[in-house]
């Protein structure tokens, strides 16, 4: 995904896709020449140079709204002439054409019709990508010519292929009417709190929403486009006729009751917002809206926020005469399935323990949320962990039908121990009592599995073992996946995971990605493992070409990498933090790195920051460090050294801001430094520490810990059979490059006994 820039400003591709996959646009002319056209400067201050690149000398500057004559264009640059007769080259991104012989004069609204559409700085695929538009995005079409549309989006002007945008219903400009749900809602000039406030809206005000993206709504305000936070707008009927009296107090308001003692009331929807009061258990509150686990409530006549998990629904309608009572839908009787189950005052292990329940005890479950069951305990509400409750019959028993021959329960499965000695415990935690141990190859009956622990049948009783040390038993699965077994090497566990597809079919899928620019290789690198890693730094300014079938087959085949410890790093499970590397050890490594273009070593003394991030987001530390080293060229890339930006998405910032990007997140190949810096700014990565932590969180959520993609090894992050578009890198050598660095960092671990590898075995 990544394009790095070396000290001379040359661009280095370490190809990678993070936030977007580029749409394939038809090839047209590679450059355009203009004459007799005029343009308006859109940047606050725009450098004019003696050539068409940033490496040329600045001759003078032009200011926002200056009119210039455009005499020619080349690769995203316009040659311009000012009213004073001065000539030079300026970036076409910041000049909006005002006239063209082939332009149409009217502007219309159209909508993107493909999943991802490149918006470029000029009308050709040779121009750089400014941003990527997603399906359904509305754009203002200013003109159309030769298969390209000049469009405006989020204050930016650029070009898109006309065939990938379609006309929309422009009656009311395809708007949706919504209603403001808060007082003094800021109206801003752009979709971020960094943009200037140009007005305010009061509760109940109706607005026309043109489009919505990333939590911001583009609206019509005083005849112009503006932006407000989407969370403060509510849906209403589409009619814009004068309001009739409301049928109910507020359409989305609901009365709920507090289910915990001393519920904090905050000024905003986050624990980082200030606490403005507390609510006692049983207090009824009016809920205005709910989003991302927070409820906006009416608190002493003002809007405030509380955590939604501590509110329960109650009836808000006048009570009807009672009918004969039937059991509530939410109530259910369950039975305790563990020897001693803690009963707590709230749904968390940090809540106080108020008692315990013995195995076999029946409890009345009132509700269930986030792994906790609210129960009736001695006449009061209390909480227990849901995983230690099993269902029992709660309806009046019917006369039993004759039993059919019993079949094994769906939850039971035979598995085999894959480590030399596996502890058996009384509960699903390493703090639970050890009952015994199982040797490698022992078959066990697994009754259920939850949170990384398997409940098993041990000597006729229920017990628990860590799930990662159990593999499927070939003898009991009856075929399906080609499970290859497990082995223990120098204390590390290697699981061979059978796949239900062949290597050839996976190669075919990845070849489809080649045609879309999804798999490339450095044109200067030989097709061998060692040479590829060793030549990484030397290839900074060399070009990438499409990988051929033999390249894909080589890098996709695990057998080419499992013969060395370096190659095996591709298959290390990354979804857990392993202690054993100290900050001093990492600092010794970081401090030995050379300085970058700004004369600094950005990673100097940052060992503890990497440890904190890996531990906080529960991912492998050696991987996190190695990935950063690979993406940044050991801290020397432009994105890593930090870029000071003065505008965001074409809008000037209040003050220059320095941002960092160590993992190429959001850095689109053709405009890596610009798009990477914007992604860093939008994530608040304005310090080295914040960038390390935020990046670890982003990678964990989107790849390593994602339940949908399950990309918990470097190999799986790069090669994804089911979702070929969700691959972290386009460079086929990416896994191999990172694993070479990991092989050095991994030696800092004080033991290899807690390393687990997952090697795929193709059908």
Automatic annotation (TrEMBL):
GO molecular function (one): amidase activity
Transmembrane segments: none
Biased composition (Low complexity): 345-356
Keywords of the record: Signal
InterPro entries linked to this entry: Cell_Wall_Dynamics_Protein, MGlyc_endo_b_GlcNAc-like_dom, SH3-like_bac-type
Biased composition (Basic and acidic residues): 320-334
Record region (Disordered): 315-360, 392-414
Alphabetical list of PROSITE patterns matching this protein: SH3B
N-terminal signal peptide: 1-34
Pfam family, one: Glucosaminidase
Residue ranges constituting the SH3b domain according to the UniProt record: 36-99, 107-169, 175-237, 253-315, 331-393, 412-474
Protein name (database record): Mannosyl-glycoprotein endo-beta-N-acetylglucosamidase
């Amino acid at each position: 995904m990544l394009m790095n820039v070396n000290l001379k400003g040359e661009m280095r591709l370490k190809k990678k896709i993070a936030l977007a996959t580029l749409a394939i646009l038809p090839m047209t002319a590679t450059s355009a020449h203009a004459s007799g056209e005029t343009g308006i400067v859109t940047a606050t201050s725009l450098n004019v140079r003696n050539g068409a690149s940033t490496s040329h000398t600045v001759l003078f500057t032009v200011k926002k709204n200056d009119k210039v004559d455009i005499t020619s264009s080349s690769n995203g640059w316009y040659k311009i002439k000012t009213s004073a007769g001065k000539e030079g080259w300026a970036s076409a991104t910041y000049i909006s054409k005002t006239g063209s012989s082939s332009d149409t004069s009217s502007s219309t609204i159209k909508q993107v019709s493909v999943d991802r559409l490149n918006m470029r700085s000029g009308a050709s695929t040779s121009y750089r990508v400014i941003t990527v538009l997603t399906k359904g995005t509305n754009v203002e079409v200013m003109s159309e010519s030769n298969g390209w549309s000049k469009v405006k989006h989020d204050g930016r002007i650029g070009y898109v292929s006309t065939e990938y945008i379609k006309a929309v219903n422009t009656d009311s400009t395809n708007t949706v009417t919504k209603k403001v749900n808060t007082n003094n809602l800021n109206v801003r000039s752009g979709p971020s709190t960094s943009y200037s406030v140009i007005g305010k809206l009061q509760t109940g005000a109706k607005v026309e929403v043109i489009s919505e993206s990333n939590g911001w709504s583009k609206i019509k305000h005083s005849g112009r486009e503006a932006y407000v936070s989407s969370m403060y707008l509510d849906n209403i009927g589409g009619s814009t006729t004068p309001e009739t009296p409301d049928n109910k107090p507020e359409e989305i308001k609901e009365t709920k009751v507090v289910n915990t003692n001393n519920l904090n009331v905050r000024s905003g929807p986050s624990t980082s917002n200030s606490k403005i009061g507390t609510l006692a258990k049983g207090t009824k509150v009016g809920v205005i809206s709910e989003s991302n686990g927070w409820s906006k409530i009416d608190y002493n006549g003002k809007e405030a926020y509380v955590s939604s998990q501590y509110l329960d629904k109650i009836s808000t309608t006048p009570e009807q005469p009672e009918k004969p009572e039937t059991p509530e839908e939410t109530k259910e009787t369950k039975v305790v399935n563990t020897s001693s189950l803690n009963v707590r005052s709230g749904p968390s292990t940090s809540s106080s323990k108020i008692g315990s329940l013995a195995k076999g005890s029946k409890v009345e479950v009132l509700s269930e949320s986030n792994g906790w069951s609210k129960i009736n305990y001695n006449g009061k509400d209390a909480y227990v962990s849901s995983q230690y409750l099993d269902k029992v019959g709660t309806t009046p028993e019917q006369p039993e039908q004759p039993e059919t021959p019993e079949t094994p329960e769906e939850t039971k499965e035979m598995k085999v121990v894959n480590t030399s000695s596996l502890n058996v415990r009384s509960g699903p935690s390493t703090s639970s009592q050890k009952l015994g141990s199982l040797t490698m190859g022992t078959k066990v009956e697994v009754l259920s599995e939850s949170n990384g622990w398997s409940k098993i049948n041990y000597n006729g009783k229920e017990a628990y073992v860590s799930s990662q040390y159990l593999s499927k038993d070939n003898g009991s699965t009856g075929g399906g996946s080609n499970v290859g077994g497990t082995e223990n090497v120098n204390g590390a566990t290697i699981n061979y995971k059978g796949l239900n597809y062949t290597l050839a079919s996976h190669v075919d899928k990845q070849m489809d990605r080649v045609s879309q620019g999804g798999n490339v290789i450095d044109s200067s690198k030989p097709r061998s493992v060692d040479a590829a890693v060793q030549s990484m730094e030397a290839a900074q300014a060399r070009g990438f070409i499409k990988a051929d079938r033999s390249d894909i087959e080589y890098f996709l085949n695990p057998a080419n990498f499992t013969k060395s410890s370096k190659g095996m790093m591709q298959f290390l499970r990354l979804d857990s933090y392993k202690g054993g590397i100290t900050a001093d050890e990492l600092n010794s490594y970081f401090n030995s790195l050379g300085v970058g273009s700004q004369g600094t070593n950005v990673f100097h003394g940052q060992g503890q920051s990497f440890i904190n991030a890996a531990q906080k987001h529960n991912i492998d530390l050696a991987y996190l460090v190695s990935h950063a080293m690979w993406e940044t060229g050991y801290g020397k890339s432009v994105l890593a050294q930090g870029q000071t930006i003065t505008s965001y998405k074409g809008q000037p910032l209040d003050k220059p801001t320095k941002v960092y990007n160590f993992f190429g997140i959001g850095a689109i190949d053709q405009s890596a430094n610009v798009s990477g810096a914007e992604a860093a700014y939008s994530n608040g990565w304005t310090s080295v520490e914040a960038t390390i932590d935020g990046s670890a969180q982003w990678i964990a959520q989107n790849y390593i810990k994602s339940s949908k993609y399950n990309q918990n090894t470097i190999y799986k992050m790069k090669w994804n059979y089911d979702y070929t578009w969700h691959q972290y890198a386009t460079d086929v050598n990416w896994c191999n490059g990172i694993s070479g660095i990991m092989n050095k960092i991994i030696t800092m671990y004080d033991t290899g006994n807690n390393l687990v590898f997952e090697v795929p075995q193709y059908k």
